[in-house]
From TrEMBL:
NTP pyrophosphohydrolase MazG-like domain span: 29-96
Signal peptide: none
Family matches, as PANTHER family: DCTP PYROPHOSPHATASE 1 (PTHR46523:SF1)
Species of provenance: Candidatus Vogelbacteria bacterium GWA1_51_14
Protein name per UniProt: NTP pyrophosphohydrolase MazG-like domain-containing protein
Pfam families cross-referenced by the UniProt entry: MazG
Domain of life: Bacteria
Gene3D superfamilies documented for this protein: MazG-like (1.10.287.1080)
Xref: SUPFAM superfamilies: all-alpha NTP pyrophosphatases
Amino acid sequence: MEFKDYQRESRKVAKYVDAGKNFIYPTLGLTGEAGEVADVVKKIMRDDGMKVSPEKKEELKKELGDVLWYVAQVATEFDLDLEDVAQTNLAKLFSRLERGVLGGSGNDR
């Protein structure tokens, strides 16, 4: 599946208040779902001795899917093409790699 297809299809289930004019809801949802991803990883560390069971992997996949859905909705609310977002991110990261500045902080390094 391509990002454009995912973004279009995911929009069909975007039934939150004022969808199309509400970037706050999906942004808050994104932070909540990112926390759920972190919680799954924390429990793998705490409860499972860093061993990833098939069940935990499936749980993580579902949570990452929720993160992806919210990323797509935030992008759509700002009229951004998810494909372009992904390409821009890779271009930024490879530029940093070529310049030897992958580590560090700041977006404009």
